[in-house]
Amino acid sequence: MTPTSLSTRDAGWIIFILALGAGFSVASIYYAQPLLPLMGANLHLTVEGMGLVPTLTQAGYALGILFLLPLGDRHDRRRLILVKSALLALLLLLCSLTGQLSSLLVVSLLIGMAATMAQDIVPAAAILAPAGKQGKMVGTVMTGLLLGILLSRTVSGVVGAVFGWRVMYQAAAVSVALIGLVMWRVLPRFAVHSTLSYPQLMASMAHLWQRYPALRRASSGRALHRL
Description:
By secondary structure, the chain is mostly helical. It has 2 domains: 8-195, Growth Hormone, Chain: A, CATH 1.20.1250.20; 196-227, no CATH class. It has 10 helices and no strands. The chain crosses the membrane at residues 12-32, 52-69, 81-99, 105-129, 141-163, 169-187.
């Protein structure tokens, strides 16, 4: 089955699930920030070592956007979302079990890459939305994504202070696994619109950069905002 859109009734429920998936996945890259003092004390980390945890998580997210998101044009987005959700849940669990800095840093990098599931969900919502409802449906998913960013630090700080940082990551693993199971049940398969190889997909991004001035302006603006 390769649908292009759903009925309004079905789409509303599925878009809500996608919004939750986007929120839970993107939250994974921010949980560590208020937990760093607890992690540092537990693992005997230096200030520099603690600082590398969120840095590598964000770096992994950037690498995932650059090297993994183009796969959405070549493969079924449902499969990509489900694979990333399973990997993200596993990595969050592994993070809760780590006992040394080196493994923590590797897992943090991979968590960032798997958390790009959120960026696979956004175009999936646009594809599934009924005609004329794309803006509203994508806005709903983006709301879930932004709430994940905003609430992640508060939730992890409270849970970490009460139960410990490892419990926070275990709870995050469970939440991602559960939403992944729900998406497995409700998401339809997506049509594949490109037959380009992976190297060709990567090369096509340079062509898009050259062809669309609006893309260059938006990308440059976001980069300057980050600085």
